Amino acid sequence: MKQHDPDSQVTLPQPLNLFTSKNINVAFQNSHVNEYSPLNPTGTVPIRFSINSGSTYLDLSQCYLQTTFQLKKKEVTKVDGKDVTKFVNVTDTDKVSPINAFGATALKNVKVSFNGRQIYNSNDLYAYNAYFRSRLGIDCSRNIDDLELAGYSEDDIKSQISGVGFESRRDKFIDKNIFHTIAHLDVDFFKQKKFLLNEITVDIEITPNDMDFNLISQDKTLYSFGITDYRLYVKQYHILPQLDEQIQMSLKTGNLAKYPYTRNLLNTHYISSGRYDYKATLFNDFIPKRVFVALVDTKAFNGTLATSPFEFKQFNIQDIHISANSKLMPTYPCELSRNEFARCFKDLVDTTENSGLTFEEYLNHTCVYAFDFQSYPTKIATEIQQIGTTALSIKFSKAVPANGIQALIFAEFDSLMAFDYGRNITTALPV
Fold first, then answer.
1. Is the whole model's pTM more than 0.90, yes or no?
2. Which branch of life, at top level (predicted)?
3. Which of 93, 164, 374, 393 has CA 20 to 30 A from 257's CA?
């Protein structure tokens, strides 16, 4: 017998590897999931949590928020000739539903601090941050059970304000007027898998959206929709004392605990009515590795009961591109019509991993433009960071409608956070 390549490594098939066993994990004493209640009373905002890790190491990728939602409708009945108002359960004939992924998107703002230093602020755009992640599968599970627990249901192919997904979310409240969601906290640093060092206090501040943003109603019935309770769950590990001592000694000698992660920035640009084009500088420092752009009606963005804030329309776009220094994305001209959106959809599919989005959904209500500036996308390495100007350019074939448009920009950057022995933070990008 002869090898095809003499430099190939010789390997033994696993079924014949009879004299070895599994490696033994000697890192942990035990692990547990801790439940945290808000520091302030229910009904007061913002909601605050504080996690004092003490001697434990935190797995923030296993940080979940359990939220109890209540949905009722107002009903007026006659009692002894007088009108009596009460709130009752919704039924399957009521044309009402929470917004999609409401376990996460019902939140307006999330702030996170480590030992008093703020490392994350969603700038009142947390709902869109969470929706982009769950809808496009950006560092987020697309497992159907995880999505359902977070209050996510696939919208109808043609509409977000009616149809199967709309009704599925409403039906969660029919038997009882409450529903418990469990959703990851979609904080960019929480997406990396390394355990957070011990002796760090994590403070989390949460502000919910108004009901007009969180609820979609297609009839004139008065509804009550709100949050009655929060619980935070975090996975914590007690590691072996000798391993912890090694880590502390390494920190004492000047080594840093390093956490590479993908930082995301989400911002908006208002495009006023009557315009046929729009240009804006997005970033003046680091070039992002990926950018996603979506357009939403300003009225829906601000929140109205009759609209979905996640209905991303085409708005008669004729051309859209992003430039970063001398690089233009896409590199080919975009002359868009309904039949030519296939190229944009293919760019989105290639840029994301598992969106589950169909072309019809894309055309009707989830039109997201994807721009990937990475030369060779991989999760095991980062590319050389480039400095320059990133700019957006849009042309419309018809004038921007009366309400104006909000352009949502979801951008990602390779970043690094590090801690010294005193738990002081240094970063590759400002936070």
1. yes
2. Eukaryota
3. 374
